[in-house]
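Example record

The entry below shows one chain as it appears in the dataset: sequence first, then structure tokens.
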Amino acid sequence: MTEFIILATLISVIVVALLVWSSVKQQGVRRNNDARAHCYRVHEQTLLELAADHEAGLIDEPTYREARYEAENRLVADIRNIDERPVMNPAYRWIIPVAFTLPLAAAGLYLLVGNLAGSDPAANFVRTGNVGQFVNAVEQLEEKVRQNPDDLRSQLMLARSYRAMGRYEESVIAFGRAWPLIKDDATEISIFAGVLAIYRGSFEGKPDELIEQALALNANDHDALTLAGGSAFQKGHYAEALRHWKKLQALLDKGSEEQQWVAEQIEEAQWRLDNPGQERSPQRDPHEGMSADMEPQAPMGHASML
């Protein structure tokens, strides 16, 4: 009887330790994933703004290409900074020795986390930064989809992976095939809209329709509001952009870096609304000073596309 009580107590301690450790770690994972999603949204909005300026003749071809290159380098640097942040708050690290007291518990946790993280190549890539592993995983996922094109979840993971690789045309196709899975998810629809807008170089048409659909599903979706504001801004509808971005700003944590970023977009839109036909000199980069630690929200995607 005594041995049974000791064994039961030991098992209870292990289970509680693992549950607490997993909960704390998942909070850090969600924080980092949100920060990565925001970086992608900012990057994609930057590309859209550059494309709009280039099409309008505000910047020439060499400047446009150089700006895109700098934006891509900034995205890589921001993602790397996020990946270097500790997932767990140091104040909770006392949990680790308890959770790993028994090799069996450690192995079980490793398999659980490893399987979940490894199921999505894009998520695994931003976590590890291993390009070769990412490419191999995408190739395996492509083969899996070829063998079973009706596997909608794999189609969605492939869409996200193509997006992370900058293969926007293929990402659009994969998102389209995964449509039955995402058609009721405002965030995923917003990410789809953002990818499609990047591929086309404009929000006109289907991207705007998708954004409207996302807002109809959830009027407070951060990704959809970000994109709606970006679309209006690109068209020169600054009052409409302000309406969407101010609503988004009210939904964000006060004083957060993401709210500060949105405030910069609001300030830029307000200036353009108050000074029609004028250009700032020197023109301010709306994304200057953006930190990789920003938490979301917003697809350009929230997002999530994206």
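Notes for this example: The CA atoms of residues 253 and 259 lie 7 Å apart. The mean pLDDT is 72.
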